[in-house]
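Section handout, structural biology tutorial.
Before the tutorial, make sure you can parse a SMILES string by hand: atoms, branches in parentheses, ring closures as digits. In the record below the ligand is pyridoxal-5'-phosphate, and the chain has 227 residues. In the tutorial you will relate the predicted structure tokens back to the input. Do not try to memorize them.
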Amino acid sequence: MMKLEHNRQSVLQQIRIAEQNAQRVSGSVNLIAVSKTFPAADIRQLYQHGQRDFGENYIQEWQEKTIQLMDCNEIQWHIIGHVQSNKTRAVAEHAHWLHTLDRAKIAERLHEQRPDSLPPLNICIEINIANERTKHGIQPDELLPLARTVLSLSKLRLRGLMCVAQANATETELRQQFNRMAELLRQLQTIAPNADTLSMGMSGDMNVAIECGATMVRVGTAIFGKR
Ligand SMILES: *Cc1c(COP(=O)(O)O)cnc(C)c1O
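Predicted structure of the complex:
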């Protein structure tokens, strides 16, 4: 088996075990393969083995890959990096998911720029869960106002929440951060009953994230290698 597919199978196995340990339904956690900095050929290889969800951070790099991978028409592109307002058009026209919404202005631009021919863009709101200066995302008390804006825009579909946990956190701290995310999703569901997504967990912390209710894990290094 090719190395990347071998790595992907190991990650899928790890996900299934974490689901079982948490007594969660098998298959309730979806794997997003985070391909930033790796070439389109790597994405194509995994696509040929059945991987459909890919995560990218940098809009220009991603746009080049979408052109190279035009024939892989079942790819679901997940934008997981911060998006500046001058880059929203590409996201509106070519992405399936944006995980990092943190401002009403970006939501409004995406709504205006989303082509009528496409289904609504799936949106997760990013929470700065450990209140870190260096991270993007909103504070928990800003969630409901921003969510109401997204809910008012017909070309966006509010799916849930996303976070990047603190890099040097202990397992106890990780569990606190991810549990707080699950609590915030329940709060969001009081105004957005269809929000079903918790995008959290990366190569280093996916087991804890799954234990705490992640429905999407974003895994780069464990599949593609070091960046
Ligand atoms: C790069 C990145 C990932 C993947 O991280 P790994 O540690 O390589 O698995 C996940 N989420 C976001 C937001 C990222 O920027």
